[in-house]
Amino acid sequence: MDAIDDEDLRARVDDMPGPLLVDWDYVLILEWWDGVAYLDGPAPEQLIPAPLRDALRAWSEAMGAAYADETGAHDPDPEETDALDAEYDRLVARLRATGLAVDQGKKWWRAR
């Protein structure tokens, strides 16, 4: 199933099970989350408009390339880190603009 368009998503926002957690932990995390537990609901990637879904995947791949060393022995340079974080913030803002309630992850990678 392909992603729905912005208009269809806005019509379905009230039917979502809770806020959408958007995070990254060496993979892109898109899960319905109430702050305590994951919630059952439609697959988030199927609800996100295709251009935004693709942008999220591209950001996740860039994060993987920058933080591939899970030991923390290598971190990206500050300019790359800032650019990745800014893109994350923009993507979350775009998701919120669709009408979805979004819980943005805490950028744990900044404290590595």
Brief synopsis:
This protein is of the alpha+beta class and 112 residues long.
Q: How would you portray this structure in words?
A:
By secondary structure, the chain is an alpha+beta fold. Helix content is 43%, strand content 12%. Strands 2-1-3 form a three-stranded mixed beta sheet. Strand 1 and strand 2 form a beta hairpin. The protein is globular, with a radius of gyration of 15 Å.
Which key features would you list for this structure?
single chain, 112 residues, alpha+beta, three-stranded mixed β-sheet, 3 strands, 12% strand, globular
User: What share of residues is helical?
Assistant: 40-55%
The helix/strand order is HEEHHHE
Shape: globular
Spatial separation of the terminal alpha carbons: 37 Å
Query: Could you give the count of β-strands?
Result: 3
> What is the typical, i.e. mean, pLDDT?
86
Unreliable residue stretches: none
